[in-house]
Amino acid sequence: MGRRHERLSELFFREISFALKGINGLNSYGILTLTGVNLSSDIKDLDVYFSVLGTDNDKTESHKILIKSIRGIRQTLKKRLRLKIIPNINFKLDSTPDEASKIEKILNRLRDDDKKGANKK
User: Which of 29, 43, 92, 103 has the fewest beta carbons closer than 10 A?
Assistant: First the structure.
């Protein structure tokens, strides 16, 4: 995409991060982090990726709170930005941190097994 598209993606990321600071109870269910955004080419849809440090229930509850907050976030964006189009926001759970953690555990097990095997020889 073009430079304008990149700048808009960055702008939406920053502004949504700002808007989320005012949402009550958001960090009551684990620690929520925005990990990225994906703006459609027609600028009508925005996927916002997030991760939650906590249990599966924490992730579910945080997602529910985010979904309930979409209307307020869009209103905040309309007030703060001078754009003709404010995209529809879709929050999506980013599983990358969980996958990275699983891989790290596997690698640690393999290292431990190698150390045990080397000690037996």
Answer: 103
pLDDT at residue 23, as a whole number: 82
- Residues 23-49 have pLDDT tens digits of 877 778 888 889 999 999 999 999 999
Q: Domains in the chain: how many in total? A: 1
H-run or E-run covering 82: none
CATH code where residue 79 lies:
3.30.300.20
Left, alpha or beta for 34 (phi > 0: left; psi -120 to 50: alpha)?
A: beta
pLDDT tens for 58-68 read: 999 999 999 99
Tell the burial category of 84 from Cβ atoms under 10 Å away from its Cβ (0-12, 13-18, 19+): exposed
Helix H, strand E, coil C: the string for 54-76 is CCHHHHHHHHHHHHHHHHHHHHH
